[in-house]
Amino acid sequence: MAETPRHPIESGVPDAFQYMHPVFLNNYGAWSYHERLRPGVLMHVAKSGDKVWTVRFGTQRQLGPYEINLLCDIADEFGEGYVHFTIRSNMEIMVTDEAKVEPLIKAIEDAGYPVGGTGPSVTMISHTQGWLHCDIPGTDASGVVKALMDELYEEYTNETMPNRVHITTSCCQINCGGQGDIAINVQHTKPPKINHDLVANACERPSVVARCPVAAIRPAMVNGKPSLEVDEKKCICCGACFPPCPPMQINDSEFTKLAIWIGGKHSNARSKPMFHKLVAAGIPNNAPRWPEVAEIVKNILAVYKKDAQDWERIGDWVERIGWPRFFELTELPFTKFHIDNWRGARNSLNASAHIRF
Amino acid sequence: MSATDKPKNPEKHCTYLPSEKKSSKPFHNTPNLDELEKGPWPSFVTGLKRLAMQDKFGNMMVDLLGQLEHSYKTRLGYWKGGTVSVFGYGGGIIPRFTELMGTDGKPMFPESKEFHTIRVQPPAGNHYSTKMLRQLSDSWDKHGSGLIAFHGQTGNIMFIGTTTQNVQTFFDEINEYGWDLGGAGPCVRTGMSCIGAARCEQSNCDEQKIHRLLVNNFMDDMHRPALPYKFKFKVSGCPNDCMNSIQRSDFAVIGTWRDDMKVDQAEVKKYVADKGRKYIVDNVVSRCPTKALSLNDDDTLAVDNRNCVRCMHCINVMTKALSPGDDKGVTILLGGKRTLKIGDTMGTVLVPFMKLESDDDYEALKELAETIIDFWAENALEHERTGETIERIGLVNFLEGIGIEPDPNMISSARQSSYVRMDDWDAEAEKWKARKAG
Questions:
Q1: Which among A320, B10, B135, B293 has most CB atoms closer than 10 A?
Q2: What is the pLDDT of residue A1?
Q3: How far is Cα B119 from Cα A132, in angstroms, rounded to an integer?
């Protein structure tokens, strides 16, 4: 007789109280203020008078047992046995004695991990899976991030930007990496190449037709087989048809490019949340180190660092100085592609005589 | 010290590779990936190589490196999806099968031909004891490649790389000690909440409680995907919105307060004495989006609380002097998402303020989420997120569908177009008056 399968326990989100540092537990909801003592180190003071020092550091995000045990050894020996991860995959180790901070920093740095990512720094890049694991990637994720963080290492370990800089990467136009002060996203430049022999068996054709944002796909008989065809004049090369229909290959070793967007911001601080906006495109998908991307990103950061005022995020800064000045200062070309034509686009046009000279 | 400086103890360093390779399959040539072992940031390639040298699953990682190198050469991806799940669930696994076949029609990298990811829900707020982290790592080392990402963009712990057979054994093991699968496909997805009340003085709500209450109420909708498309909950303890909930979730819960913010005038004076008047005028007073701040002649701060929009900027700058008020609660926004299909939408205000103190308050929050998901599931087109449903049918129709009255906090400006039929204006105006009268 076959073994009875085990039924899952639908326990859902684990209760974090069992895994959190006791100082967090004891002062839950009762914190007073915090200070940043140096890049990578936060000190939080509770209403009870309790204090906790947090040391933040960057990792390669994809960790194996060696790294996990190495970092847990550090958290046990130099910390107090607890870790926390930020939304941008930074790791944090907490201590309740100031004397433990310096030895902890040293232990983390001696193991090759950079301490930083707090305050006005360029923190860890949030990213996706790319060629390592995604089924529709136009580029890699971990590799782009590794190459860029090598270039921005000093900006991670120091706090010399006007405000925090969140960079994201996304390996297709779905943009799983999310909004960023600087977002590096795949941008396809040619319509999908359709393998008509496979469409009938692999794709639910009405769903694929419905998925297209510009209604450029229609059912068709090709070589006597039911397939799909794309009106290439209407096609915006977004790749939305590729996930539900893999025979509509959108990725291309030459025509899949990268684009850079700036000024996205999630926080409500000062201005309302903002979406990022296009600044550069047509950038080659140049593995393994994507030097053209790094050059543009570093240029934007250098101009931002020089021209922005304290506390201005990249989006705040561009709102103040205006887009013409942004393109002037960064020397990036302004093209017809920067003028939006999607729904709601007229709201992005300058309907005023406000011009900076 | 960075990854490229000479390590003091090479065996305890991110560049460490064991002297003995226990896996039987020789490494493929990986000149592109090798380039990513250079430079100061810790290298994921070195990590993958370390995994490839281990005994069990080492050969899988040797071939994984081979396929990844091939992607770097051709600049194309080679994974396809499929159907893999655990007994009793329909989602939570991201199946991956190689598409990279040789001329003989067989996989070029056969050892990693199945390389599935298991999405697991993290504890609310992403806290781990080292003991639990090691235990999870040990389990994954036993049943899979050992490679774990903390965390994916939806918030899951991603256990990357195992065979179909091992998916079930791994899940059974960790499920026994308290870990459950996350969402994948058209379902309620894994939620996220910030560190909030555990460490942050700006927290205005019990983020973990809200996160667990909302998500755990929909386990059936998470584990057995049957909704129009994905539905995400995210919880941020204050309007700094560290969880990116307005832009990245269907149901954003953001902690806020409705009484006056707190000002410690002695600390304000100290701050002015320390930083100077120009600094506080340029960086605090003039950065207030609603001009609700002003510096008094005696270096104390005047706050027009009626016009403060709780943006958090001044509190972020003067962490010791300024803090949120006492009458705390949450603002709820609905319908945030990224590009596909109609373009980006931000969440829009649905409930300007909701008190979350009593069990009844929390129950009301849970019921609101249920009502929204029911209405959306009933009325959305296939593959349509909540933000797109609102765009298609209009916010007013959506509000009527879920039984919420219009509120001026829902808009950034009133209607500009006169093309609307308004013959029941008087009745609507009466409703407003009746609501105001309570």
A1: B293
A2: 54
A3: 16
Dmax (CA) for chain A in angstroms is 84
Query: Between chains, do B47 and A12 touch, taking CB under 8 Å as contact?
Result: no
CATH ID of B192-257+329-410, from 3.40.50.720, 1.10.10.10, 3.40.50.300, 3.30.413.10? 3.30.413.10
β-bridge partners, A168: A126, A183
- State residue B306 phi and psi, 5-degree precision: -65, -25
Domains present along chain A, CATH in parentheses: 16-110 (3.30.70.3340), 130-189+253-339 (3.30.413.10), 198-237 (3.30.70.20)
- At residue A141, the pLDDT reads 93
Cα distance between residue A166 and residue A180, in whole Å = 5
Q: Which CATH number is correct for B79-176, 3.30.70.2500, 3.90.1300.10, 3.40.50.12280, 3.30.1460.10?
A: 3.30.70.2500
The per-residue pLDDT for range B244-258, each reduced to its tens digit, is 999 999 999 999 999
pLDDT digits (tens, 9 = 90+) for A14-36: 999 999 999 999 999 999 999 99
Query: Under an 8 A CB cutoff, do A269 and B239 touch?
Result: yes
If contacts are CB pairs under 8 Å, which of residues 237-276 in chain A contact chain B? Answer: 238, 240, 246, 251-254, 256, 264, 266-271, 273, 275
pLDDT the model gives residue A120: 98
CB contact at 8 A, B338 and A178 = yes
A vs B, Cβ pairs < 8 A, gives 385
Interchain CB distance below 8 Å, A82 and B127: yes
pLDDT digit string (tens) for B333-391? Answer: 999 998 888 889 999 999 999 999 999 999 999 999 999 999 999 999 999 999 999 99
Q: Is the ipTM of this complex over 0.90?
A: yes
DSSP assignment, residue A132?
G
Give the C-alpha separation, B323 to A226, whole Å: 64
Give tens-digit pLDDT for B85-96: 999 999 999 999
Q: Which of B126, B131, B348, B391 to mutate to test the interface with A (most CBs of A within 10 A)?
A: B126
Residues linked to residue A42 through DSSP beta bridges, in sequence order: A36, A54
Contacts for A348 with CB less than 8 Å, ≥ 6 apart: A339, A340
Only one residue has tokens 């303020």, namely B353
A236, with CB counted inside 10 A (0-12, 13-18, 19+), is: middle
User: What DSSP designation does A241 have?
Assistant: T
Length of chain A (residues)? 357
Check whether A194 has a pLDDT greater than 60: yes
Q: Are residues B128 and A84, on separate chains, in Cβ contact within 8 Å?
A: yes
